[in-house]
Amino acid sequence: MPLYQVWQQLSDEFDKLVPEFETFAVAKSSSISAADFDLVEECTLEGLLSRSWQAWCNFCRSCVIDSCLGTTDGNGAPVPAHPSAHTEQHVSGAWLEAKKKSKNPWGPTNAILRLEPTWGDTDTLVSSLPRMDPTNKAQLLAAFSSAHPQAKILQLIRNAAAHNNPETMASVTSEASKYIAFSPKHPLHALFWLSPVSKDYLVLTAIEELRDAALTAIS
């Protein structure tokens, strides 16, 4: 698939989700606090966050796999296939081996999606891409490195919401000093901390910066 189309799919999904986050914020006071969230709203936010994270992961997966198999970038220029990449399952298998720090990951195939490492994890992307060695490796590395803060905070909040306990909650609150933050009672509340730069909500700032990083990845 052309990489511009991969980016467009991500952008279209974000366009569906962002208004839902904005609608939630508009319905609240100008200064959101932990007291502003009820159970139904938390459940809704958890679903929206999960969909946002899935969209990012799907973009990263398609971007890496299509780049390895050969495609065109966002400007229509060819991205030549890696000489050892033959099928999607073959690239998936190489991704598993690259995550294990194999110096030559191109070997067995993988047809079991649940075995793949988390595609949206920027630590995995930055460490594994050099071993995969797609021809647009430098562009992808620059983009995924720039996306690191936004991807990691959304991943952290999502995982803490899915596995809510004192330790995961503490991992979220440890990030509060980076934002204009209130004391949360649930990990999802941190989505509405304010970015000190944009003064917009964390979740909205993160999504837009991921969209921009994704555009850089395909350029």
- How are the strands of the largest sheet arranged? 1-2
So how many helices? Answer: 8
Number of strands: 2
For the record, the count of structural domains works out to 1
Task: Give the integer mean of the pLDDT values.
Answer: 95
Task: From the alpha carbons, calculate the radius of gyration and give it in angstroms.
Answer: 18 Å
Looking at the chains present, what oligomeric state does this protein adopt?
single chain
The share of residues in helices is: 55-70%
User: Strand content of the residues, in percent?
Assistant: under 5%
How would you sum up the global shape? elongated
List the helices and strands in order: HHEEHHHHHH
Major beta-sheet overview:
2 strands, antiparallel
Give the distance, in angstroms, between the N- and C-terminal Cα atoms: 15 Å
What structural class is derived from the secondary structure elements? Answer: mainly alpha
Can you give a write-up of this model?
This protein has one domain. By secondary structure, the chain is mostly helical. The protein has a two-stranded antiparallel sheet. The mean pLDDT is 95. The protein is built from eight helices and two strands; from the N terminus they run ααββαααααα.
